[in-house]
């Protein structure tokens, strides 16, 4: 038996040639598909030396042909006349993305959820004040395994339009999802507050208390030896709207002045409340 130029022959008188499909070419009926969660099976045409090979001479195996990625077709000779194999690849694009919910949290952030897709590398999310996405467009990308994300640092009382699509590296992108819209919270009102109680113990530890503001993120407390707060001002932050006490050790034989105001991210600052005096 001899193997020359892709053909196998024997020394027998009939000398029937064998053909290696490694030298054949494969043409697919379609090279790009969009994922629909079903098998993609393009029709196969095999040619050898410009002649179409009858499908009776080979079998076809498909692999990786359901989800987004690179699908493969392998043509295998039936070993009667055609031996070995040849192959071809095709692309499966992600399907259209689907947003399942978009809600506003208590902290004025968008909680976005979607249906995940197998095989994709990630998702591109766009949000904008313009429903046509022609201007003021913000874009973020998340991993293909993620099914939710949080969009932060948004202004109050603003309507946003959101869309997303999946992508697979070295393959392509899917279609944009249907656009959803959501409006951020109405800007909360912060109220001026003042200290309700002050208590100085024998070790000169001062304890200040105040009535909390449920709309705020925390409080700024200022103290100084100067009643007008023009010099020597120290500022501390008490995080958390539920915080209602502040403690500090003071120097002996000094006069301090304290004031407080609430704060919230994205809301203009308000004035400090009534000043209190503490003598040690």
Verbal overview:
This protein is an all-beta fold. It is rod-shaped. It folds into three domains: 2-92, Immunoglobulin-like, CATH 2.60.40; 99-183, Immunoglobulin-like (Sandwich); 195-279, Sandwich (Immunoglobulin-like), CATH 2.60.40.10. Strands 14, 15, 17, 18 and 19 form a five-stranded antiparallel β-sheet that branches. It is built from no helices and 26 strands. The termini are far apart.
Label this structure with key terms:
280 residues, mainly beta, Immunoglobulin-like
Shape verdict: rod-shaped
Beta-strand fraction estimate = over 45%
Using the 3D structure, state the CATH architecture of the largest domain: Sandwich
Determine the mean pLDDT: 92
**Would you tell me which CATH topology of the largest domain applies?**
Immunoglobulin-like
CA gyration radius, whole angstroms: 36 Å
CATH class of the largest domain: Mainly Beta
Task: Please bin the fraction of helical residues.
Answer: under 10%
Work out the helix count.
0
Summarize this entry quickly.
This protein is mainly beta and 280 residues long. 0% of the residues lie in helices and 49% in strands.
Task: Lay out the secondary structure.
Layout: E1 2-4, E2 7-9, E3 18-20, E4 25-28, E5 32-34, E6 44-48, E7 51-52, E8 58-63, E9 69-77, E10 82-83, E11 85-93, E12 99-104, E13 110-114, E14 122-128, E15 137-143, E16 148-151, E17 159-168, E18 172-173, E19 180-183, E20 195-200, E21 205-210, E22 218-224, E23 234-239, E24 245-249, E25 255-263, E26 276-279
Parallel strand pairs: 3-10, 5-11
Antiparallel strand pairs: 1-2, 2-3, 4-6, 6-7, 8-9, 9-11, 12-13, 13-16, 14-15, 14-17, 17-18, 17-19, 20-21, 21-24, 22-23, 22-25, 25-26
